């Protein structure tokens, strides 16, 4: 049997690092990339200087600033991050043709057969890290393992700037002391169920009979049992392009009226249409997302036979969904719109 060698590359504090490249005077200062605190913005990313004060992604910017009042706050510039990300991914592609980008700043590389010898993996990882630093000015952490799960968990073990290699055969032992929540696929509810029977670490899971876990967790049981043993057969898959394009905003105040959501959808429709047009795509599905003041969230979609990238069409479909599914009794906190089920090609308006 061939032992696979998988790298997981994760850029360190990526958005903050890109902003610091643009403005080197930010280096070393606590930096938050996030929305306006007066408009209930949230932290998209923070550098390590800010994290030292307890700033974390997804907390409100206002809260982050209470923890670290001296932090510089910069609104996210996603198109810039996408451009830099594309350069990083191109560089990674030079190391292996089998690359799977898993987010804007993370990717798996299948290095099986790409190395002079398996023992050369850590050295190659450090070389890759160095090249990302010298060519793009960015820091990355690399995890090395015999599968995607282990590579990803290894990468997290020594951030920022680490290279961590888990030797084949040592997977289960590496995972054993970690809390169950560290394992992908275990959310708070599952963790709660496990805690009730005294299962706290991944090692505890591995000691359970597979049947018990499947009885408790249903269809997920087998997968979680395999993960807990460090087993993961998922291949590194070269990704097709993004399958949806979306936008969303959190309103500065909870919204009761009908005009603002409709106006917001109109603007979003224009932006989504523009992005589709730039990529020469049309979309068949439009999805509306609403989050109410109590954080309950609904998403509703409409799929039509005709694909479109016209702002008016997208807007019409969005407003249909809003009229049909909005709960009038609750004010809206967040609204989002996305398009998916892409068809390649330019929209041709029907001839009269
Ligand atoms: Mg990262």
Topology:
Blueprint: E1 6-11, H1 14-22, E2 31-34, E3 43-46, H2 48-51, H3 61-67, E4 72-74, H4 78-93, E5 99-103, E6 106-110, H5 121-136, E7 140-145, H6 148-156, E8 163-165, H7 171-175, H8 188-196, H9 202-207, H10 210-217, H11 220-228, E9 244-255, H12 259-278, E10 281-292, E11 297-308, H13 311-325, E12 332-344
Parallel strand pairs: 2-4, 7-8
Antiparallel strand pairs: 1-6, 1-7, 2-3, 5-6, 9-12, 10-11, 10-12
The structure holds magnesium ion.
Magnesium ion binds next to strand 1.
Description:
The chain is α+β, with helices and mostly antiparallel strands. It folds into 4 domains: 6-13 and 79-171, Reverse transcriptase/Diguanylate cyclase domain (Alpha-Beta Plaits, 2-Layer Sandwich), CATH 3.30.70.270; 15-77, MutS, DNA mismatch repair protein, domain I; 173-228, 5' to 3' exonuclease, C-terminal subdomain (DNA polymerase, domain 1); 245-344, Dna Ligase, domain 1. The chain is built from 13 helices and 12 strands. A 5-stranded mixed sheet has the order 5-6-1-7-8. It has a 4-stranded antiparallel sheet with strand order 9-12-10-11, with helices on one face. Helix 4 (78-93) crosses helix 5, helix 10 crosses helix 11 and helix 12 runs antiparallel to helix 13. The chain is globular. The model has no long low-confidence stretch (mean pLDDT 92). The structure holds magnesium ion (MG). Residues 10-11, 14, 105-106 line the site of magnesium ion.
């Amino acid at each position: 049997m061939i032992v696979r060698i998988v790298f997981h590359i994760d850029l360190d504090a990526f958005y903050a690092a890109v902003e610091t490249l643009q403005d080197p005077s930010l280096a070393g200062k606590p930096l938050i990339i996030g929305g306006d605190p007066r408009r209930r913005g949230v932290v998209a990313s923070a550098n390590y200087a800010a994290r030292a004060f307890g700033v974390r992604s997804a907390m409100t910017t206002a809260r982050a600033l209470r923890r670290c009042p001296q932090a510089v706050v910069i609104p996210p510039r996603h198109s810039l991050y996408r451009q830099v990300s594309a350069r990083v991914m191109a560089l990674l592609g030079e190391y292996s043709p089998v690359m799977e980008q898993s987010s804007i700043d993370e990717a798996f590389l299948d290095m099986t057969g790409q190395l002079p010898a398996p023992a050369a993996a850590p050295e190659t990882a450090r070389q890759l890290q160095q090249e990302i630093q010298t060519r793009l000015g960015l820091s990355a952490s690399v995890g090395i393992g015999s599968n995607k799960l282990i590579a990803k968990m290894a990468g997290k073990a020594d951030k920022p700037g680490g290279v961590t290699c888990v030797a084949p055969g040592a997977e289960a032992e590496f995972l054993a002391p970690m809390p169950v929540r560290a394992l992908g696929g275990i959310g708070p509810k599952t963790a709660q169920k496990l805690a009730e029977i005294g299962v706290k670490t991944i090692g505890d899971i591995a000691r359970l009979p597979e049947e018990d876990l499947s009885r408790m967790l249903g269809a997920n049981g087998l997968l979680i049992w395999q993960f807990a043993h460090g087993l993961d057969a998922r291949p590194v898959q070269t990704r097709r392009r993004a399958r949806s394009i979306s936008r969303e905003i959190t309103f500065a105040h909870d919204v009761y009226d009908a005009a603002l959501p409709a106006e917001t959808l109109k603007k979003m429709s224009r932006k989504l249409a523009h992005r589709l047009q730039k990529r020469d795509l049309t979309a068949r599905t439009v999805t509306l997302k609403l989050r109410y003041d109590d954080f309950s969230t609904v998403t509703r979609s409409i799929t039509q036979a005709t694909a479109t990238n016209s702002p008016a069409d997208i807007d019409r479909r969005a407003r249909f969904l809003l009229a049909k599914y909005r709960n009038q009794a609750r004010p809206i906190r967040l609204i989002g719109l996305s398009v998916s089920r892409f068809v390649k090609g330019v929209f041709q308006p029907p001839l009269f």
